Amino acid sequence: MPETLTCDVAVIGAGTAGIAAERNARQHGAKTLLIDPEFSGTLCANTGCMPSKLLIAAGRSAQRARGSGLFGIRTGKVSVDGPAVLSRLRDERDRFAAATRQSFDDLPAGTCLRGRARFTGENALVLDDGTRIEAKAVIIATGAQPMVPPPFRDLGDRLLTNETIFELPDLPRSLAVIGAGVIGVELAQAMARLGVRVTIFDLGDRLAGARSDAVHAALKSALEAELDLQLGVEPTPELTESGVTIRWDGGAESFDKVLVASGRPPSLQGLDLEATGLDLDDKGMPEVDPATLQCGEAPIFMAGDANAERPVLHEASAEGAIAGRNAAAFPAVIRSERSLPFTITFTDPPLVSLGEGPEEASAIGTASYADQGRARVEGENHGVAQIYAAEPDGRLLGADLCCAGADHMGHMLGLAVQQKLTVGDLLALPVYHPTLEEGLRGALREICEALSLPGGSDGGGPSGA
Fold first, then answer.
1. What distance separates the 2 farthest-apart alpha carbons in the chain?
2. How do beta strands 117-121 and 124-127 pair?
3. What secondary structure does DSSP assign to 286-337, as a single string?
4. Cα-Cα-Cα-Cα dihedral sign, residues 133, 318, 20, 332
5. Are 228 and 242 in contact (CB under 8 A)?
6. Is 141 exposed, middle or buried (0-12, 13-18, 19+ CB in 10 A)?
7. Is 360 exposed, middle or buried (0-12, 13-18, 19+ CB in 10 A)?
8. Do the beta carbons of residue 177 and residue 292 sit within 8 Å?
9. How many other β-carbons are positioned within 10 Å of the β-carbon of residue 465?
10. Quick check: 29 and 328 in contact, CB under 8 A?
């Protein structure tokens, strides 16, 4: 006879969102169950943020060694040991993942259930071993998975995704990257810097979703200097004895491996969401309130990459916490004020997008880093930053950057936007010389001029003064 378990909140998925959801629901007094088929740790630790940054760090090290001649430092020919690069990557990746897995041992006994869950009703689940669960509320935190278009599904071991690329024993000689989104451009540039011949293919003409034309141009220029871009084309693969030939309108080229990075849709298959009675769209998705994470009026919540709203780690953690609190208190859900949208693509230079975009701005300030003082000192003098503000007082709305230090300066600008500061407020802050941050002051002064605002206490002056 199958066992029946009862709880206040059942969480499906033990990734970043699920871990945060279970924790917050329990802290709000709920009896919880956390369900996962593997409990292997988070996407970020295993196949996302951390292994990709380890590959990027290796590529950056190789690139810096090659460029040391700019500073009068002679290193000779740079050699990349592919197996050693990937071995270190996996060792460090496994350390991060192990720390997450260890956290499951600290949960109250009986909290973790290994298995795959599907709905049999609005708040009823069954696992693949027959165990039944009756919960007052359910949180779906099943994450997302790589989407491989049909033409690429028959490439066998020539096919890579973000879930398999880090298991390579050695670097390929050549790599076709299908998709110019965040994952595609990050891994493409890293591989190119490690000596792999790389081409990015995409149906669209925009890299990594860059919003600003000027910022996109800066990113495109940086990537074109290191790899081949084929944008606005439809690539088709042909498996051969020696690799994969990619054909597109105007060309054909052979590659050892093909990385498909064409999107990560939510992992909802097998959940039987139809059994919940929720209204589902043509993709099988329910409507999710971003302020409560509730699905319709049901005692069902969806957090993290599963809802496809803001698929980045800090948002998954925040959404898990919101969903956990509301599931524990259902039906007394609370609407939460979300932080401003903020994304970083870890290319070199980094691409940063935060807050509202150029279409919503009354004034736009642009700062070129082509001749910025600190950027020239570091040999990283390329790229651009754009800041957006609203009239009449120059309140900061958002920004897009692709320049040295953008991943750090973006946090400062994000805080300023979230605190509803004005360009005058930022110009009144002390900025040390020479730093990358002072390069933003030209953009801020440009906004002041456009909106006829006083420049505060800023005295101007060249960045290399």
1. 80
2. antiparallel
3. BPB-TTT-BBTTSSEEE-GGGGTSS-SHHHHHHHHHHHHHHHHHTTS----P
4. negative
5. no
6. buried
7. exposed
8. no
9. 9
10. yes
| SS3 of residue 37 by DSSP | coil
pLDDT digits (tens, 9 = 90+) for 233-274: 999 999 999 999 999 998 999 999 999 999 999 999 999 999
- Any idea which residue has 């698929």 for tokens? 311
pTM for this model (two decimals): 0.95
Phi, psi of 240 (to 5 degrees): -125, 175
Question: Backbone phi, then psi, for 155, in 5-degree steps?
Answer: -90, 0
Q: What is the CA radius of gyration of the chain?
A: 24
Placement of tokens 């930053």 in the chain: 385
Cα–Cα distance, 91 to 114 (Å, whole number): 26
CA–CA separation, 12 and 28 (whole Å):
18
What percentage of the chain reaches a pLDDT higher than 70? Answer: 98
User: Is 80 exceeded by the pLDDT of residue 459?
Assistant: no
**What is the number of other CB atoms lying within 10 angstroms of the CB of residue 139?**
36
Q: Could you give the CA distance from residue 344 to residue 338 in angstroms, rounded to a whole number?
A: 18
Q: 279 and 291 in contact (C-beta within 8 Å)?
A: no
How far is 233 from 247, CA to CA, in rounded Å? Answer: 10
